[in-house]
TrEMBL record:
Organism from which the protein derives: Takifugu rubripes (Japanese pufferfish)
GO biological process: protein O-linked glycosylation
Glycosyltransferase 2-like domain: residues covered: 101-256
Chief location: membrane
InterPro entries: GalNAc-T, Glyco_trans_2-like, Nucleotide-diphossugar_trans
Domain of life according to the entry: Eukaryota
Protein family per UniProt: Belongs to the glycosyltransferase 2 family. GalNAc-T subfamily.
Gene: galnt18b
Signal sequence, start to end: 1-27
Record's protein name: Polypeptide N-acetylgalactosaminyltransferase 18
Annotated PANTHER family: N-ACETYLGALACTOSAMINYLTRANSFERASE, POLYPEPTIDE N-ACETYLGALACTOSAMINYLTRANSFERASE 18
Presence of the UniProt keyword Zinc-finger in the record: no
């Protein structure tokens, strides 16, 4: 899911590449420890660990993207600060709310992190509202997720038969098809699709189920707080709507003005899209086309769902009174090259949903519109779905649901500008939030993929599309 700092990612990348290589620092505890000083794991944690334990912790961190060593030593049942804004605690909810199935998807997740997700779901969802928990294992290779997990499941089910179901993929299907597998196994009228590294906060379920009961075409996201990947402390996040940039990476947005005018922090926040985890009426989800199962691995499915729901007559809300803490991992475990999957999935969204604005996604990824060389697979079924549901245009969506998204018109060209005489001289787009390209010297030849160089011209003029190089 979405790091709060997603918007500064690119600026940070640039900074990293411009910075001269660091000279290895001196370890606090002598020469043996210099290798540890580079890991962000030990910036705020683990100073008192022995070198051997540090080594174990570092290995687990590299594997999981969070502090699995610490997680294994924390209680599964742990208290959590009630982070709901004022006004949430004295709302009363109907007694006849629908039941929910909670789906957790994972691949090679730390067992203690999964079990803590399950524990918090059981402890903080009223038991008459929680029908079942579904675990989707996307073909993990990690052994502790086999027998030990089965033991836990059969122990729990011995008290409550059939309460936890396990779905195991025989080959890795990626996050998107894993969520759909979980949905297929669910039987409650409402399905909550989550990562397996979360902790549910008190009172999360009632507001969500009430909003869906009132209108089954609402897809609901809770408000997310962060579980720090190193210390596992819970870090309160500001209330946000959820959106995306033109590469279709998720981002948190300031709630719309109309929400601020209400002066009621417990009111639902209308949101252009979803950042990944959401709760939905089980049958409505099928009617509007689930997720795009032609997408691979990770990314873009949340944006596609957001656009589709709005364009095809539903709505999306983030609820301030429903809070869930989620571990923002330092790195994702799915694959080495997440970006190429996000790009492919983004182009599928562009082709099916974005009409004349699809060029914006191609530009953002610095990919030519024709002959991009990227195989996006078959999108005919998704196009047929759009037609069948008689969905509105993307322009309608942008103007009405996502007005803060910048539109580009009169583009003359985009792509990479290369200096054929001096190839260590790079021209970069500069920071995202202004329009000032920057020129700088690179250590060697400009690395185009890393720098994401592109120029977006706004003046009318010659057609220079053929000069795009990649
Ligand atoms: Mn996640």
């Amino acid at each position: 899911m979405c790091p709060l700092a997603a918007t500064v990612r690119r600026i940070f990348m640039l900074f990293v590449f411009l910075r001269p290589p660091e000279t290895p620092g001196r370890g606090d505890e002598g020469q043996a420890d210099t290798s540890f000083s580079d890991s962000s794991l030990f910036a705020h944690w683990g100073q008192d660990l022995s070198p051997d334990n540090r080594r174990v912790a570092l290995k687990m961190f590299q594997y999981y993207g969070y502090n699995g060593y610490l997680s294994d030593r924390l209680p599964l049942d742990r208290p959590m600060p009630d982070l709901r804004p004022d006004g949430c605690r004295n709302i009363t909810y109907p007694l006849n709310l629908p039941q929910v199935s909670i789906v957790f998807i994972f691949v090679n997740e730390a067992l203690s992190v999964i079990l803590r997700s399950i524990r918090s779901a059981i402890n903080r969802t009223p038991s008459h509202l929680l029908k079942e928990i579904i675990l989707v294992d996307d073909n993990s290779s990690n052994n502790e997720l086999k027998e030990k997990l089965e033991d836990f499941v059969s122990q729990t089910n011995s008290q409550r038969p059939g309460f936890i179901k396990v779905v195991r993929h025989l080959k890795q299907e990626g996050l998107i098809r894993s969520r759909v597998s979980g949905w297929r196994a669910a039987t409650a009228p409402v399905v909550a699709l989550f990562d397996a590294h979360v902790e549910f906060n008190i009172g999360w379920a009632e507001p969500v189920l009430q909003r869906i009961q009132e209108d089954r075409t609402r897809i609901i996201s809770p408000s997310f707080d962060n579980i720090k990947y190193d210390t596992f402390e819970i870090d309160e996040y500001p209330l946000s709507a959820q959106g995306f940039d033109w590469e279709l990476w998720c981002r948190y947005l300031n709630p719309p003005k109309s929400w601020w005018y209400k002066g009621n922090k417990s009111a639902p926040i209308q949101s252009p899209a979803l950042i990944g985890c959401f709760v939905v009426d089980r049958l409505y989800f099928e009617e509007i086309g689930l997720l795009d199962e032609g997408m691979e691995v990770y990314g873009g499915e949340n944006v596609e769902l957001g656009i589709r729901v709005w364009q095809c007559g539903g709505s999306i809300e983030v609820l301030p009174c429903a809070r869930i803490a989620h571990i923002e991992r330092a790195h994702k475990p799915y694959t080495e090259d997440l970006t190429s999957h996000v790009r492919r999935n983004a182009l599928r969204v562009a082709e099916v949903w974005m009409d004349e604005f699809k060029s914006h996604v191609y530009m953002a990824w610095n990919v030519p519109m024709e002959d991009s060389g990227i195989d996006i697979g078959d999108v005919s079924e998704r196009k047929a779905l759009r037609k069948r549901l008689q969905c509105k245009t993307f322009r309608w969506y942008l103007v009405n649901m996502y007005p803060e998204m910048r539109m580009y018109s009169d583009t003359v060209a985009y792509g990479v500008m290369k200096n054929s005489l001096k190839n260590d001289l790079c021209l970069d787009q500069g920071p995202d939030n202004d329009n000032v390209p920057i020129l700088y010297l690179f250590q060697a030849e400009c690395v185009i993929d890393l720098c994401k160089q592109r120029i977006w011209e706004k003046k009318n003029g010659v057609d220079v599309n053929r000069r795009i190089s990649k």
